[in-house]
Amino acid sequence: MSDNNGGIQRPDGKVRAIDTDYQIGQDNIALKVGPLGLDIHNRVFAISGMAIVMFVVLTLAFRESVEPFFAGLRGWLVSNMDWFFMSASNIFVLVCLALIVTPLGRVRIGGTEAKPDYSYAGWLAMLFAAGMGIGLVFFGVSEPMSHFSSSLGGITVENGVRTDWAPLNGAEGDPASAQALGMAATIYHWALHPWSIYALLALGLAIFSFNKGLPLTMRSIFYPLFGERIWGWTGHVIDILAVVATVFGLATSLGYGASQAMTGLNFLFDVPMTDTTQVILILCITALALVSVVAGLDGGVKRLSEINMGMAALLLVFVIIVGPTIAILSGFFDNILSYLTYLPELSMPFGREDVNYSQGWTAFYWAWWISWSPFVGMFIARVSRGRTVREFITCVILIPSTVCVLWMTAFGGTAISQYVNDGYEAVFNAELPLKLFAMLDVMPLAEITSVVGIILVVVFFITSADSGSLVIDTIAAGGKVDAPMPQRIFWCSFAGLVAIALMLGGGLAAAQAMAVTTGLPFTLVLLLGTFSLLKGLISEPRKPAKNAKSLSTATR
């Protein structure tokens, strides 16, 4: 049954709850201004909000000097901390795979008798749309083609330093090997590793909220390590980092989405690509996201996610049927094999010679995923009550990873086939945001499918802004999931303003730099959180395995 627990449903069945005197929302400031209400954590909301406002003001005030600063910051971080990001990501994958096969997989989120709140279709649609929607549309063609072309070009060395962008040792002059390596390098960035980051954080939030009875906020995961200190400044710092990381991770994805949508509009309808038009685009999409915010979780995010998944599935099926169908279907299995073959080398944190790939692509990606993880993790936790740990990890990691492989194979494989078999070089030579539209341009119904691509980006943009504001508001409200609506409206608007500031201050370079910067301290937070999660899971009651139960009955 539900009661006044910050909107969080009480457990069903057996759990090992944490005994604490802390009440959800006890440190909040509750205000009523006319019909509008506020219920905010006094320190987390104020400090994180002021930090982000200061960043926006300084970025807009010093636009000329911001871009080179951000570019230098991003370069220093990925070149010096690449080993840390890559090592941490490998740990997350190994922990997730271990949870699937160990008895801890029988722990059920929400108690031993808890039932799922959503059907499989609705659940998977929401977690997938929140996790990687914009990224798949933006990079589905561009990344496989980029790695293919750099692999095909081989290794170049200047003054004893590699200057090429080829993953590993490349595949100079060998299109088949270059395609296998390029697809493996792409899948490495979109399959097990990023989804493991999301899964562990989401699982920690879900267990400590729905089973342990703590607020649905980042600090709760760390109770086994810090005890009652999480209600003080130890917890405040963790939650502030989570809010800032989420805002900038969200702004990075919104920046990619706006860039591709604007490029598509320019390609199809000659809409000028100026700062003004991009600001107008972000403002319009943010306004649509506000409508979704007001509609609520079921009426807004869930419905939009299902619509978007349907549109994405139709576009995927279209590309498979109209494109090189046999090559795509066979390539799906070939690419999985290539991925598994190259995975040990691609995930090696040390002794890398392909520094442009491992630092410029991989280290940035892991920092981006990690800065994005509080948002995606908390959103997945919100909608995953009633699932077992084994079911949760399997679905959150393996199913989306499989869909990512199919998507990259269909879109990237079609673009590579156009270049190798048809001599079509437009995709090969196009800028990153334009590669999808260049690929669709020589296929039937090009104008319709290109418009569908733009709509996909826009709707993914809306669902990301909506669900992101939900998550940020939950953290800034001290873990309350039933905080007043004006707060979600504030954070949704705020994310749009940050995206605009980053775009004006330095474009995608600024967004990438902030994602990497916030991802660095949060990687350490996630490593500590993983250890704490394991301690929490070990103490949870779980139903006996079916075969053990059957054996016990037979013995009696």
If you had to describe this structure to a student in words, what would you say it looks like?
It is a multi-pass membrane protein. Keywords: Cell membrane, Membrane, Transmembrane, Transmembrane helix, Transport. It comes from Ferrimonas balearica (strain DSM 9799 / CCM 4581 / KCTC 23876 / PAT). The chain is mainly alpha-helical and 556 residues long. The protein has 17 helices and four strands. The protein has helices at 42-61, 63-80, 82-101, 120-153, 175-190, 192-211, 223-226, 233-269, 275-322, 325-346, 355-382, 389-422, 426-429, 435-440, 446-476, 485-538, 546-555; strands at residues 28-33, 36-41, 157-158, 161-162. Strand 3 (157-158) and strand 4 form a beta hairpin. Helix 3 packs across helix 12, helix 5 (175-190) packs across helix 10 and helix 8 (233-269) runs antiparallel to helix 15 (446-476). The model is unreliable at 550-556 (pLDDT under 50).
Highlighted features:
556 residues; mainly alpha; Amino acid/polyamine transporter I; two-stranded antiparallel ribbon; two-stranded antiparallel sheet; 4 strands; disordered C terminus; BCCT_transptr; transmembrane helix; Choline/carnitine/betaine transporter; transmembrane transporter activity; transmembrane
